[in-house]
Amino acid sequence: MRSVSHLFISGRVQGVGFRYFAARLASKYNICGFVRNLLNGDVEVYAEGEKDDLDRFRLQVKTGPSCALVTRVGENDVPMISASFNSFDILEDE
Q1: Is 86 an active-site residue?
Q2: 13-70 pLDDT tens trace
Q3: Is 19 a catalytic residue?
Q4: Which of 4, 16, 34, 83 is least enclosed, having the fewest CB within 10 Å?
Q5: Which position among 37, 40, 58, 72 bears the catalytic label?
Q6: Which residue out of 12, 19, 40, 56 is catalytically annotated?
Q7: How far apart are CA 62 and CA 41, in angstroms?
């Protein structure tokens, strides 16, 4: 069963390779969606995938790469935007 996760990650998460880290994890777990930097310094992640894969992805993305310092993770309940995502993209900054 496909599930969705919409995360807002705060802390030292920009300028540390966080988006590329998330994209590599997404590839590993067959996750589709996007990641982008927000103007307030947070990183936004929208991810769709099979529930077990998505749970593993979320657990690791909530920690971030080794040089990041995640201080808070907010998660919104959102409907699936589109089950037709076929990739995980790094979007331009907000």
Answers
A1: no
A2: 999 999 999 999 999 999 999 999 999 999 999 999 999 999 999 999 999 999 999 9
A3: yes
A4: 83
A5: 37
A6: 19
A7: 16
